[in-house]
Write a structure and sequence with these properties.
Belongs to the ABC transporter superfamily. This protein is an alpha/beta fold. The structure holds adenosine-5'-triphosphate and magnesium ion.
């Protein structure tokens, strides 16, 4: 059984349908990426999983239970970690305050998790009392991941973690994602940096126009001539 099983999903915003019949499954411990052109609906997949976009048909099963009707807060309570594509930290709150908010649905502040996050991202540990808005782009992305990790999620949904990062920080970001996956957290990641994402992941999906186009092991997609020509710039 898959940890996350999206079947024949139609979804969008109000009456506007963006996704048509999307199928994506993620097994326990896997690292899966979704790539595709701008406007393909990649972020909409993530937003539908977490209850921000509207599910218009099909199902989203998480650990065997349909979560497609849940509110964002209820999804967070299922300990599904989500790092949005943009505006993923509170800039006028400190690093520490952001991490605390990441755990707001929990009954108790998980102090040990917080220490784990600071161990994983030492740059944050040096800046606990600084406003998140004063951090570099890379540090803000680490903080956004840290907030999601405060839930000790079984699965982490990452929407374009490398977007906007200086080129020398992109590799570091992908290394962090590898580490989180190696430590046992299942990853579903959307990436603009498609080649690197496919190189790093176990399996990948190519979405276009709100529909599935290709699905295979990351290496197989990278080696597929049609995929390369259509979606990876040759
Ligand atoms: N809040 C919204 N309300 C209405 N339409 C939206 C909303 N967000 C996205 N859309 C539309 O849904 C379609 C898919 O957008 P989505 O953000 O999922 O694409 P994407 O694959 O993530 O693109 P990108 O690579 O640019 O991030 C686009 O046509 C977009 O204009
Ligand atoms: Mg997007």
């Amino acid at each position: 059984m898959s940890l996350l099983d999206i079947v024949d999903l139609d979804a969008g915003y109000g009456d506007l349908q963006v996704l048509s019949g999307v199928d994506i499954h993620v097994d326990d411990g896997e690292y899966v990426t979704i790539v595709g052109p701008n406007g393909a609906g990649k972020s909409t997949v993530m937003k539908t999983i977490v209850g921000i976009a509207t599910c218009l048909g099909g199902s989203i099963e998480y650990q065997g239970t349909d979560i497609s009707g849940l509110s964002p807060e209820e999804v967070v309570r299922e300990r599904i970690g989500y790092v949005p594509q943009t505006n993923n930290v509170f800039p006028t709150l400190t690093v520490e305050e952001n991490l605390r908010l990441g755990a707001y649905v929990l009954d108790e502040m998980p102090e040990d998790r917080k220490r784990d996050v600071y161990d994983r991202f030492p740059a944050l540990a040096d800046r606990t009392d600084e406003d998140a808005g004063s951090l570099s782009g890379g540090q803000q992305q680490m903080l956004a991941m840290g907030c999601a990790l405060m839930l000790d999620p079984d699965v982490l949904l990452l929407d374009e973690p490398s977007a906007g990062l200086a080129p020398d920080l992109v590799d570091d970001m992908f290394d962090r994602v590898d580490e989180i996956n190696d430590a046992g957290t299942t990853i579903l990641m959307v990436e603009q940096n498609a080649k690197e994402a496919l190189r790093r992941c176990d399996r990948g999906y190519v979405l276009a126009n709100g529909r599935n186009r290709y699905e295979d092991d990351g290496d197989a997609l990278l080696g597929d001539e049609e995929v390369r020509r259509e979606f990876l710039g040759g």
